[in-house]
Amino acid sequence: MKARILLVEDDQNVGAVTKKRLEEAGYDVVHSTDGQMAWEQFQSRTFDICLLDVVMPKKDGFTLAEQIRRKNDFIPILFLTSKALDEDKIKGFKTGADDYITKPFSMQELLLRIEVFLKRSKAAHTTAEKRTQYNIGKLTFDYNDLILREKSGEVSSTLTQKEADLLKYLCDNANKTLKREEILFHVWGKDDYFLGRSMDVFITKLRKHFKSDPSVKLETLHGVGFRFNVPGQL
Question: Where is the chain membrane-spanning (predicted)?
């Protein structure tokens, strides 16, 4: 599948030219012309990398980058901007950006940087996907066997596949704030009301498995999502 790029550029001409060149290079590109539109696009679709301008209507690039980073720790964020002062670059990196390219830029350089960050991001995701065993407080979780074990090796609980899928995602993102829609997309494949109710049921089931260990807490963040608080290294 083509990597999908969120391109946020309020200059229609620059945006159109950049979009065309990226598509010619084999990417699927969604072009937004203001920060609010871009945020709505990001929440409704999946992207592999974000290219953001800084000065934009409705929501500036720094604010947008912070929002994106709170929702997704992995996706590469590159600023494409004419703001070349060191303090602007520092602010960009502090918001969670991975790179900062000043205009005018070489399209060849941009394509090379995109390729580097996509490879890096894919490697990070592959590592997380391959991992199958986790230490969760007093228990060990084996994703392949769908089992929670005591430290002694005794089976504590047997999970359903969906419980295991949800728990693995929580473990891969332990001690981080996760939006409801983010969990629904990654575990169920889409975000809708009825799947949200189903997720709440599975969250309740998982809590019961860790009820005997107060150091492990699956916390509800009302109006936001959940946080899987786990002590130490999983």
Answer: none
| CATH, residue 117 | 3.40.50.2300
Point out the residues of the chain with pLDDT beneath 50.
none
CA 74 to centroid of chain Cα atoms: 5
Neighbours of 31 (CB within 10 A): 20
Does 215 lie in the same domain as 164?
A: yes
CA distance 148 to 156: 5
Which segments within 85-224 are labelled E, that is strand?
A: 99-102, 133-136, 139-142, 147-150, 155-158, 177-179, 217-221
Domain with residue 215: its CATH number is 1.10.10.10
Q: Does the pTM of the predicted model rise above 0.90?
A: no
- Count H helices, E strands: the chain? 8, 12
Alpha carbon separation from 168 to 23, 42, 225 (Å, rounded): 35, 24, 17
Residues ≥6 apart with Cβ < 8 Å to 129: none
Range of the domain at 184: 133-229
**Is there a contact between 128 and 134 (Cβ–Cβ < 8 Å)?**
no
pLDDT in tens, 76-110: 899 887 766 667 677 777 777 788 888 888 888 88
Asked whether residue 117 falls in the same domain as residue 150, the answer is no
